[in-house]
Amino acid sequence: MSAFIVICTFKPDTDMTEVFAVVAEEMAQVKALEAEGRLGSVHLSLARGTVFIEVFALDEILAIETVASLPMAKWWDLDVYPIQAPAIADGAA
Q1: Which end of the chain has the smaller Cβ count within 10 Å, N or C?
Q2: Is residue 62 within 8 Å of residue 38, measured between CB atoms?
Q3: How many CB atoms lie within 10 A of CB 34?
Q4: What domain range is 53 assigned to?
Q5: Does residue 26 fall inside a structural domain?
Q6: Number of structural domains, the chain?
Q7: How many Cα atoms are found within 13 Å in the side-chain-facing hemisphere of 60?
Q8: pTM, rounded to two decimals
Q9: Residue 7 DSSP class
């Protein structure tokens, strides 16, 4: 399993009223994906119209599919970054 950070930017023509209408559905899907081990942390910057999602998947295509299963995904442009844990220096705990 690989880790990815998916940066989800709201499209310019997004009606935020529609977005807020699906918040409960979004939260339920996030919890389900967390329980399956497919999602980690989710961070929202309303001021920047951006969501940062930690995704665990075998490859980038599956990471995108995971994010696409979220109700809000239809309003997002996605940018996917594979990530690695920082290296630990010898002798460091």
Answers
A1: C
A2: no
A3: 15
A4: 1-10+38-84
A5: no
A6: 1
A7: 8
A8: 0.87
A9: E
